[in-house]
Amino acid sequence: PGAAMLLWLWLCVCCCPGHGLRIHEYLYFQVLSPGDIRYIFTATPAKDFGGVFNTRYEQIHLVPADPPEACGELNNGVFIQDQIALVERGGCSFLSKTRVIQEHGGRAVIIADNAYDNDSFYIEMIQDSSRRTADIPALFLLGRDGYMIRRSLEQHGLPWAVISIPVNVTSIPTYEMMQPPWTFW
Predict the structure, then answer these.
(1) Which of 24, 112, 117, 132 has its CA 20 to 30 A from that of 49?
(2) Distance between CA atoms of 55 and 49, rounded to whole angstroms?
């Protein structure tokens, strides 16, 4: 691996004692369309609820939920069926959002921070006190990344992005990784 990747790995393992962010705690996905955000994004799985990705989706829709916080009935629930939902943080618990997407037939949920300027701080998504469960994977996405994806879809008048998830970044040379220019890796 390149020097930048080695430095990143060292920072994750050595500078976070106790928590020890390890490489397997990140999940990567790539936006395939629209082209102006054709980058590899980093997300973190929920800590203690939700499923895991047992399948690799080469091309699946990433559908922004309507309303964005997905705390109740969705106006575009029919488009979430068998796809992945992009949801915004706030209004209810992470688990509640995940259950709403699961009830609409979504395969997974990506919950973006509602702080649109957040380009580096990952929130640890934990189960609420309701003792409910969720079976679909739930991932946390930086606010800046979620904002840029939604903004691109709005600019192009598109109802969803096409993504590939999960992406194995260990097989991609560092110089070939298409990283969002607004995010420090």
Answers:
(1) 117
(2) 18
Domain range annotation of the chain: 34-169
Distance CA 174, CA 16 (A): 23
> How deeply is 19 buried, as exposed, middle or buried, from its count of CB atoms within 10 A (0-12, 13-18, 19+)?
exposed
The class that CATH gives domain 34-169 is: alpha beta
For 49-107, the pLDDT digits (tens) are 999 988 999 999 999 999 999 999 999 999 999 999 999 999 999 999 999 999 999 99
Place of tokens 């998830």: 165
C-alpha 131/C-alpha 103 separation (Å) is 17
* Amino acid identity, position 107: R
Helix, strand counts (H, E) of the chain? 4, 7
Euclidean distance between CA atoms 91 and 97, whole angstroms: 9
Question: Between the CA of residue 69 and those of 12, 26, 93, 108, 157, what are the distances in Å?
Answer: 30, 23, 10, 15, 20
Residues 6+ apart with CB under 8 A from 155: none
177 Cβ partners below 8 Å, 6+ apart? 40, 169, 185
Q: Taking a C-beta distance cutoff of 8 angstroms, is the pair 165, 57 a contact?
A: yes
**End-to-end CA separation in angstroms for the chain:** 14
DSSP letter (8 states) at residue 138: E
